[in-house]
Design brief:
Length: 226
């Protein structure tokens, strides 16, 4: 039997992303997020307007989406409840966040140069996507005012930011043997955030008719032309 319920969050399970952006002084900010999805080489990111990451991405017009596997769960957790913002915004203070200037150091993570954007990649993440800004719109403006939320009930606190992936780096061991343009889903073990807890993926549950369609048929034009 189903029951009508009002969960405060509806985070049903999405991969964690460590998004790296450049701060105004040229240093690096890296923050965990998980409101991200991809279609082709386009990606939609749900980011709080008050986060330094959002401000950096909208100013610099680029970022790197570093995708941790289950093996990086501890590093991701070290970055939870940290912000590069100083002072810490009131809503985050209330939730026990603190300011941290050196986010990479806090997560024991290593920066590595990107090819096409200035934001660095996070070496420890097996998948890294260099991305450039495409568009932004406010998201969830209808949200009911929450304690320590926006001044006005109508003010949006989240941005939906579309970015375009311009380069993908993948740890070789995750690629299908003899098919360097295919990530092997049997080898890729993303870190999943579900209702704020960390999970991994289980094994395949049954054969997939969708997977019978050749992956190449989805290749976007922009990626093909490189
Ligand atoms: C696993 C995980 C997932 C998160 N997902 C998101 C998200 O999708 N969007 C978002 O705005 N914040 C998300 N956060 C919170 C940000 O990491 C947090 O706001 C952080 O302070 C941002 O850092 P910054 O202020 O230095 O940019 C997530 C945090 C964790 C630990």
């Amino acid at each position: 039997m189903h029951k009508v319920t009002e969960p405060s969050i509806l985070y049903l399970g999405t991969p964690v992303v460590l998004i790296s952006t450049r701060n105004e002084d040229g240093s690096t900010n890296v923050a965990p997020m998980s409101s991200a999805w991809w279609l082709g080489w386009s990606c939609m990111l749900g980011l709080a307007n008050g986060s330094l990451t959002t401000q950096n991405l909208l100013r610099e017009k680029e970022c790197v989406l570093n995708i941790p596997s289950v093996n990086q769960a501890a590093a991701v957790d070290k970055l939870a409840r940290l912000t590069g913002s100083n002072p810490v915004p009131e809503g985050k203070l209330h939730r026990g966040y603190r300011h941290e200037k050196d986010k990479l150091g806090a997560g024991s993570l290593t920066a590595e140069m990107s090819d096409l954007v200035k934001s660095p990649r996070v070496k420890e993440c097996p998948i890294q996507m260099e991305a450039v800004f495409e568009s932004v719109r406010q998201f969830g403006s209808f949200e009911i005012k929450r304690p320590f939320g926006p001044e006005s009930q109508k003010a949006s606190v989240i941005s939906a930011i579309e970015v375009r992936i311009v380069r993908v780096h993948v740890e070789e061991a995750l690629l299908v043997l003899d098919k360097s343009n295919h990530i092997d889903p049997d080898k890729w073990r993303p870190l999943i955030m579900s209702f704020a807890q960390f999970y991994g993926l289980g094994d395949r549950v049954q054969p997939s008719r969708l997977a019978e369609i050749p992956e190449e048929s989805y290749r976007p034009f922009a990626a093909m032309s490189r």
